[in-house]
Amino acid sequence: MHTSQQQHSLSNSKLLYLSQKIDNCLLIIGKYSAWCLFALTAVTLYDVVSRRIPALAFFGSTGLQELEWHLHTILFAFLFAGVLVKDMNVRVDIFRERFPKRFNLHIELWGTILLALPYVLTVIYFGVLFVSIAFIAGEGSTSSHGLPYRWVIKSAIPLGMGLLLLAIISHVLKQYIAIKNNPVNNHINEYINKDEINSHKTNKHNEINKNNAINSINSIKSTISSSSSLNSHLNSIPISKNKKIIAISCIFIGILICVWMLFVRSTSVDDPIDWVYYLPIFMFLSLTILMFSGYPVAFILGGIGLLFGGIATWMDAFSLIEFFNILPRTWTGVAENLVLVAGPMFIWMGMILERSGIAEDLIESIRIITRKVPAGLAIGIVLIGAIMGATTGVVSATVVMMTVLALPTLKRAGYKNSLAAGTIAGAGTLGIIIPPSVMLVFMGDILQVSIGKLFMAALVPGLLTAIFYIIMLFAVGVVLPKMAPKATDIPDRSFIETFMIVLKGIVAPIFLIMMVLGSIFKGWATPTEAAAVGAFGALLLTILKGRFTLKMLTESIQNAAFVSAMIFFIVFGATVFSYVFRSIGGETILLDAIEATALGPYGTLLLLVAVIFLAGFFFDWIEIALIFLPIFGPVIVLLFAGDFSGRRDELVWFGIIVGMVLQTSFLSPPFGYTLFYMKGAMKGEYQVKMSEIYQGVIPFIIIQMLIVGLIIAFPEIALWLPNKIFG
After folding, report:
1. Cα(first)–Cα(last) distance of the chain, in Å?
2. Helices in 112-203 by DSSP H: which ranges?
3. Residues 6+ apart with CB under 8 A from 621
């Protein structure tokens, strides 16, 4: 019996060793592929400069643009596997943290086998066919100045999915061994019989094997215990209350949707139940249920799309073969989309700024400027949030950065905890709406509107929100000065010394904003190319500040590349889901339901906004944009196209409303993501209770809701500037 256990343990150690080797190889491939982001930025920047300076134009612009999306394709395709290995996949893990660990392991194992594996194998198979057709046809660029051998870059997607298949195999091995050895009652180290390992320490080779096995065990530990550190702060709320809130809300919403759809069906058709008609409902409910299981969203979207595509084909309501023929072209279209190319470069710009020290200098400058103003420091934090939002475009980075740097400053100045926390949370979310926002880039592509127009439309609402924040804080400083005392720890300096400190802190971010937005205003660069300009500007500022190191460059590129790959993996899954959903009648049933409610255009808009607001409690903006906007966009066009000028202004207007609503949702208790970003970044003596955070954000939520109401009532708030600039 003992020998059998030893053999079993040794077998497990070999499997873990194999898993670790696979993971290491995939991470190495991903880290080297991440440098495509640097090349992408350089090529895009060169394209901009060569158009302005013809003497430097050694290559045609068409060829350069095609090279950009070639690099873009390699960037995310070869990093998909690394995203799974690093456990960077987006999850809705509110319930997952409450489930037993063994139950979560089963979800991971069976979700991977039933959803991820068929999805990835399907992509590989039809991707190879797609590449073969391009190779046989000798497909090249449609332009004589473009790049030849189109099949080469098209092969990146099946190759990337092949690497992902290896990651899935490694993932399944780890989950299987963890389940088999019951990690709930035993430490992972007990998976391997220590005596068995020690008995093999007869030579150096076996010692190396032991170390590798232990490294693999540590990897399994990370796999089992991994969960969002931010959402772990939900423990600040009583668990029973937490569960009740979520469960009751989800059950109520689910029942409401089902009753609504059944009512629509019963009033819109008289024939017997047509199960094909209900497929979109079952598809959406399946998506929602699986989302709350905590399994990666990208695999759920792709797997559910594939499953219901097969069911609809079996019911003669859908052509799966046609779908498989179209799908590779759709994915290639995503890779070639020069609008989406901007995303990784804006993310990299934010990663560089996070490490540049610009924020520290900016905070000190604002403290000096506002030292004699009531609530001056809090007002300064809002200004910093607006500036950093306009430079990084990444909310999580801004919120975490401001929490680490500004919260200690506010608390030392004597600010009430709730006001300090609320100010940081409110100011940090300005990056969602103030351009260049990464979210707006993706929303513009989904809604098929100009990114430049969307940026300009977001500028006035974003600045208006910041102004209202400042007015509210000033009033608090005047009426309740003990909550927001003036700064008293700033030493007296000469005018020249003060001016130089302020200049040092403000010039850099203002310079970067002018580079990004100014290049768009002047017509020197498209919004995509402006992302490269911004990334270069951030890198240049880091060099000038003496903060540049090769380690900083490597880490920022790799982090930005993996985050970008994670986003695009969800984009691919959402492409599958949305195509099947629309093809089997999802839009039709939604329009039928809206007609049955007889709410009218603005009543329907408020209903859609409410759905997005509630979704913001549980989903990140990526899932919301990719799942809801393709469905809601056509509804908005149908309801409001006649009220606008016919230049898709209704979608620009709707995009800004969605951005503002998500800003409010991410700030709203009890599940706003921003609150957990902030709580997770608090350290040591500068901790703030979750109840104080909830109390502090309420005034900012009210202001945001007021701005949303104003935009709905007066669309010109959002549309005046883009129409003035772009006509």
Report:
1. 82
2. 117-137, 150-154, 156-180, 194-198
3. 432, 439, 662, 666
Query: Which residues, at least 6 apart from 102, have a Cβ–Cβ distance to it below 8 Å?
Result: 179, 182, 183, 184
pLDDT given at position 632:
86
CA 639 vs. chain centroid, Å, equals 29
% of the chain at pLDDT higher than 90: 13
Distances (CA, A) of 18 to 14, 28, 158, 181, 199: 6, 16, 23, 18, 21
User: For every residue of 490-553, which 3-state class applies, written as one string?
Assistant: CCCCCHHHHHHHHHHHHHHHHHHHHHHHHHHHCCCCCHHHHHHHHHHHHHHHHHHCCCCCHHHH
Token pair recorded at residue 226: 């991994």
The domain locations on the chain are 2-33+79-225, 342-726
Read off the pLDDT of residues 603-621 as tens digits, 9 standing for 90 and up. 888 888 888 887 777 666 7
Closest to 105 measured CA to CA, from 6, 184, 211: 184
User: Which ranges constitute the DSSP H helices of 429-494?
Assistant: 430-433, 438-447, 451-479
Spatial distance between the Cα atoms of 292 and 302, rounded to a whole number of angstroms: 16
Whose CA is closest to 85, among 196, 186, 168? 168
- 257-292 b/e with 16+ CB inside 10 Å = b? beeebeebbeeeeeeeeeeebbbbbebbeebbebbb
ω into residue 436 within 30 of 0, thus cis? yes
Please compute, for residue 235, the number of CA atoms within 13 A of its CA located in the half-sphere on the CB side.
9
Residue 529's closest CA among 338, 277, 308, 306?
Answer: 338
- Residue-wise over 72-106: b if at least 16 C-beta within 10 A, else e? bbbbbbbbbbbbbbbebbbbbbbbbbbeeeeebbe
Q: How far is CA 80 from CA 21, 457, 568, 571, 573, in A?
A: 17, 33, 9, 12, 12
pLDDT at 429 exceeding the cut of 90:
no
H helix or E strand, kind and range, residue 595:
helix 586-597
Q: Using one digit for the tens of pLDDT, what is the confidence trace for 121-174?
A: 988 888 888 888 888 888 877 777 777 778 888 888 889 999 999 999 999 988
- Locate 21 and state its tokens: 């080797």
Residues 568 and 394: their CA atoms lie apart, in Å, by 16
